[in-house]
Design goal:
By secondary structure, the chain is α/β, with parallel strands linked by helices. It has a single domain, classed as Alpha-Beta Barrel (TIM Barrel). The chain has 11 helices and 8 strands. The chain has an 8-stranded parallel β-barrel with strand order 1-2-3-4-5-6-7-8, surrounded by 7 helices. α2 links the parallel β1 and β2. α5 runs parallel beside α6 and α10 packs across α11. The chain is globular, with a radius of gyration of 18 Å. The relative contact order is 0.13. The protein binds flavin-adenine dinucleotide. The site of flavin-adenine dinucleotide has 23 residues, from α5, α6 and β6.
Length: 291
């Protein structure tokens, strides 16, 4: 089923996983998905790696989840280091495997490069990939958006204009980059609605796992850590377990406020570690998502 149709009658809980580095890691990812299945997520998604064989693992894992039949799935797809023909081939294979949902992304510049340079005959932006999918395939399509602005954007206005273009080109709904201050999400949704972006905007939540991890992530993706949270994190620089518990507590509060405000869904960046998301879902006791 297409996620856009699920969103018509359900506020979704979704969980994002990433493919392993080597094939023998696939069962581990499937087990992590299985552990969260007890909380009945409305769909799960599998990211698309920066290159190499992990890309085929995205196809393999999404196909396996789809074939199991009890979870809806969305495959991530980026434009990095691939010609349009290669990307088209991936889309054809996903279609053959029965995958119905794609999140269409540009992707980050490969490691060691600071600027995204499209492959020769490749897509330059997510907007181009979305257009290609819409013209040639029947997939339900999602796209990324950035409450605090994308790291390469010069200003929030142009970033929002490109977000709007993603929707005009065919994105059915948007999932946000992670953020730790809900007011960034609420402000973004306000600005999006004023700009006549009327599709569901699902907040993306990353329960922090350790002080070093979250600082590394946030430096990369540009999401700020509120001062009060940063002070607490500082206390747990050498205690990952305590930082993870703080992450559960913080994300529970964050999601509770978002859910109570009426968001269309919550997308959890699980990072293949099911502990925190299961705890958060247990704390929240959302109808239909309790064990
Ligand atoms: C929900 C979510 C899932 C993700 N999954 C993955 C994944 O699986 N694999 C992965 O490698 N990365 C993933 N990412 C990271 C993502 O690839 C990066 O954030 C990347 O830098 C931008 O991708 P995009 O699709 O937003 O690109 P774009 O929409 O192309 O935006 C990139 C930059 O270009 C600008 N821009 C956009 N459109 C245009 C245009 N038409 N003309 C000129 N400028 C434009 C934007 O303002 C922005 O600054 C994910 C991000 C999110 C939020």
């Amino acid at each position: 089923m297409k996620v856009k149709d699920i969103l018509k009658h359900t506020r979704t809980i979704s969980c994002e996983f990433f493919p392993p580095q080597t094939e023998d890691g696939i069962p581990g990812v499937l087990r992590a998905i299985d552990r969260l299945k007890t909380y009945r997520p409305d769909f799960v998604s599998v990211t698309y790696g920066a290159g190499g064989s992990t890309r085929s693992f995205t196809e393999e894992i999404t196909a396996q989840v789809k074939a199991d039949g009890d979870l809806e799935v969305m495959a991530h797809l980026t434009c990095v280091a691939q010609s349009k023909e290669v990307v088209h081939g991936v889309l054809e294979r996903l279609e053959e495997l029965g995958i119905e949902n794609i999140i269409a992304l540009r992707g980050d510049p490969p490691q060691g490069q600071t600027e995204f340079v499209a492959e020769k005959d490749g897509f330059q932006h997510a907007t181009d990939l979305i257009e290609h999918i819409r013209e040639r395939f029947q997939f339900g399509v999602a796209a990324a958006c950035y409450p605090e602005g994308h790291t390469e954007s010069t200003d929030l206005r142009s970033d929002l204009d490109y977000t709007k273009q993603k929707v005009e080109n065919g994105a059915d709904f948007l999932i946000t980059q992670l953020f730790y201050d809900n007011s960034d999400y609420f402000d973004f949704v306000d600005r999006a609605r004023q700009a006549n972006i009327d599709v569901p905007i699902i907040p993306g939540i990353l329960p922090l796992l350790s002080t070093s991890q979250i600082r590394r992530f946030n430096a990369r993706c540009g999401a700020k850590i509120p001062d009060a949270l940063d002070k607490q994190l500082e206390k747990f620089v050498d205690d990952d377990r305590a930082a993870r518990e703080l992450g559960v507590e913080y994300a529970t509060e964050q999601v509770k406020e978002l859910w109570d405000s009426g968001v269309p869904g919550i997308h959890f960046y699980v990072l293949n570690r099911s502990y925190s998301v299961s705890k958060i879902l247990e704390n929240l006791g959302l109808p239909g998502h309790t064990v």
